[in-house]
Design brief:
The protein is of the alpha/beta class and 290 residues long. The protein has 7 helices and 14 strands. The longest helix is centred in the N-terminal third of the chain and has 19 residues.
Length: 290
Amino acid sequence: MARRTPYRTLLTVSTVLFVLALARSGRALETLGFDTLVPPGAVTALGVQVWTGPLLRLPAPGLEVTYRLGGQVIGRAQTDINGLALLNVQAPSTPGDYRVEGEVSSPILGTSRTTLLLSVRARAQRVVIVDFERTVANGSFTEILLQPPAQVPPVRGAVAALTDIAQDALVVYLVGHDFVFGPEVRAWLAHWNLPRGVTIFGKEYVFWFSRSAYKAAIYRTIGLQHTIAAGFGEDAGDRDAAQALGLPFFAIGPRAQPGLGVPTFTDWDALRAANAAGTLPGLSWAQALR
């Protein structure tokens, strides 16, 4: 029988190789905190991904991430072979949005900090799920990755509408692409002053093969513990994910697919106008769009 190499040995070896490679390349660390949505008092894992610099994001194993809430250290966790650090915590009993800071340092690679949102919501509190690409951002994902945020505007009226919605419900941005591109999405949302909601990214490369299934799984997972008020997107995959749970759905965006059998609008201003005119069928919740 072949002798197995212990996991800890593999992690140590990969860490050494990683540090040596980075020492030669001169890259710095980069981090992404994963937002999480949980009920009050639930136990959850706070995730922080650590990579090399922005040009080539390689996992950074064996580094310690320090987690802080309100300036106080709440725990530490080490990145695994994939560069992911997970810290198990119990969510506060009081609903609210808690900003947790993750920090990682290396004598060679420097320091990187990120923020994740620990959103604590009771089941009765409403959630809306909004597809990111071409429903919020008026551009393709390639454009968002390759151009400065200022050159890719939001879909018209998105900032005002989502800011209104955020007064009554938690906004969940559903990104149908790999979390490796998370820093660019976060930078875009911050630049255009979108309300800070929970941002959910795809994992690994599954989304290339089953993006609709990925979105449906996110809807189901959130719907198990929270009240989803409505879904917004641009294509049949978004619609099907919402309607499978019996939820109202609106197709929004300049490239929203025709013939979806749902209220369809070229932009968020058109949706707000329809709401003001009282022509949104069967959605009393739409009064949140003031």
